[in-house]
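Hi, here's the filled form for the chain we discussed.

Project: internal
Contact: R.S.
Residues: 357
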Amino acid sequence: MKQKKREAMQFNSEIKIGPKTISDYAKTFIIAEAGVNHNGDMTLAKKMIDVAVEAGVDAVKFQTFKVDHLILKNIQKAPYQKITTDRGESQYEMLKRLETGKEDTIELMEYCRKKRIIFLSTPFEKESLDELDELGVTAFKIAATDLTNIQFLRQVAEKGKPIILSAGMCYLEEVRRAIETLYPINKNVILLQCTANYPIQDAEANINVIRTFKETFDILVGYSDHSQGIGASPYAVAVGAKVIEKHFTLDKTMEGPDHRASVTPEELKRLVSDIRRVERYLGDGIKIPSSSEQMTRKSLQKCLVASKSIKMGELFNGKNIVAKRTNGAGISALYFDDMIGRIATKDYKADDIISLD
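And the returned structure, exactly as it came back:
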């Protein structure tokens, strides 16, 4: 039954976002999450885009929301937000300060086009979703807060664009319900493991969930990283993440909900460098000798030689042939068993290399 379920829910294995292709065989797609770390200042936002470009990421992502459509006015802040911002301020008041308008989004999209980096933004309600779609955003990143928002997921899927879905704060069955909602409408989905706190402890990263998602849903997978510093991202790539998302800031000491849990510009550069290094370590999975091994193989692998004098017409056996290093000449010791019982076609002295002449 489980196998049939997987076959029935096979998502697209190759997804294009702008000029980039995401697949199990492509380089990791790295998203620098600016989020609301611009503090509502477009000059700061553009500086963040510059930092993302210099770091070599594939996309820079912001957040688009209409506060009055997103939250009730008396909602308290999340625990981590109370630590990083004014405790006396409501979540509504905080988000109102960080809200960006349509003209701001247009400005940032144009700046990203100029800098040749992919612009992404997370919509948090239908109004923002429609706005981003109208402006031509190439894909939708959906935050963990909306994984259980079935109506919204359906609305996102109906736009027909690639979806990057964070799975934080949820149970596997809730992820399944979300996937079952998206699948009949849109198969261009990438599912990210996420632990939705800022920052998280090392033991909370649980990057092995990436494997669980891959096996359960047969879907492209990634990791939205809230660990401290460069943290878990390179390790997530090693277990199969094809998309990495990481918050960054210009200054961790700035006021705002996410600055402390974000990486600095220098750390963002190192993050990209470390991920690319992991990819080089991982290779292509094809087991052949590397170019640097070819000469080593010739010097160190063994071939068959006569262990004593062998007369023409005599049979090769386990007592008259042995494996030694021959600088690559002769028959590989791998074929020892195949040589047993064959007839020698010439005389051999001890240490002569066996041939098939």
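Let me know if anything looks off before we file it.
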